[in-house]
Amino acid sequence: MKSLCIKEPWASKILLGLKTIETRTWKTNYxxxxxxxxxxxxxxxxxxxxxxxxxxxxxxxxxxxxxxxxCCEYKPELYAWILSDxxxxxxxxxxxxxxxxxxxxxxxxxxxxxxxxxxxxxxxxVIRAGDGEEIHCCYxxxxx
Length: 144
Prior knowledge:
Blueprint: E1 2-6, H1 10-15, E2 21-24, E3 32-38, E4 49-61, H2 67-70, E5 79-94, E6 100-102, E7 108-110, H3 113-116, E8 122-128, E9 134-140
Parallel strand pairs: 1-3
Antiparallel strand pairs: 1-6, 2-5, 3-4, 4-5, 5-7, 8-9
């Protein structure tokens, strides 16, 4: 699975549903699901952790209509990475990398028993890591 590290406070804004567009100085042709991780710096509670799965729907040149959902001012040199289906997961520590990278099981630094074992109040997401291994994460069921 592809993965992307995002600096704070933008990672938290994505997690809270306040930001659905990530901006970068480079574009990608990749479309699909990816693991979102908070960069190690600056230090916050979320730093250095995987926190959500999202679909990268599109990657286009930024325009003024993207400002609110990107939580930043328009800059013509930026690309807007349009995220959808953002699903929070129980966080686990990861070793991040720059750019869009293939997540591998070796990137997991620590996973607590809470993430390892599912119970009746959770659903499972299976992350297919870049090395072909499956990593099981869970998230809380939505109340209907």
